[in-house]
Design a protein that fits this description.
6 helices; mainly alpha; single chain; 3-stranded mixed sheet
């Protein structure tokens, strides 16, 4: 069954129709396996679990953060992230939508909350409004540890 066919089977209904439902752990594992294959090809032999651990160490957090943004945008429903924040960026979180967009741009670029608050302070922006946006988006709740899917675990 193709990925597209699978997505049709597992969709979440929202105001924009059906949205594919995914799992951070299942899709993350697929990404780690792709990394393993590429790195093993480069080395000329199977790197095994070491390549999976390398992907987890080097890419898991950034990959999860990008999935969190997809979830907030309402484009992909990640079941581990739940319904509360799904599509949150489609709702107005701040009185100033331009400020909200600027904060979200920084989140997409990988900035942490403290970086965003310091940026707002340096630029003389409304730090309270920035804090409200960050609280509503709750980026820190997407700090999932990668699973150990090694054989025998």
């Amino acid at each position: 069954m193709s990925r597209e066919d699978q997505e049709k089977l597992f969709c979440v209904e929202n105001e924009n129709g059906n949205v594919p439902e995914h799992s951070l752990y299942t899709d993350g594992r697929e990404e780690a396996l792709k990394h393993k294959w590429i790195e093993s090809e480069k080395m000329g032999h199977d790197l095994g679990q070491r390549a999976i651990e390398d992907w987890n160490r080097r890419h898991w957090w950034k990959w999860c953060r990008a999935r969190w943004v997809e979830h907030l945008q309402g484009t992909v429903y990640w079941k581990e992230l739940g319904p509360t924040t799904f599509g949150a960026l489609k709702r107005r979180l701040a009185a100033d939508p331009v400020l909200q967009d600027r904060v979200v741009d920084r989140i997409k670029a990988g900035w942490e909350n403290l970086d965003i608050i310091l940026w707002a302070t340096r630029w003389g922006l409304d730090v309270n409004a920035v804090h409200e946006i960050l609280t509503a988006l709750d980026m820190n709740s997407c700090r999932f540890a990668p699973r150990d899917d090694s054989p025998g675990s």
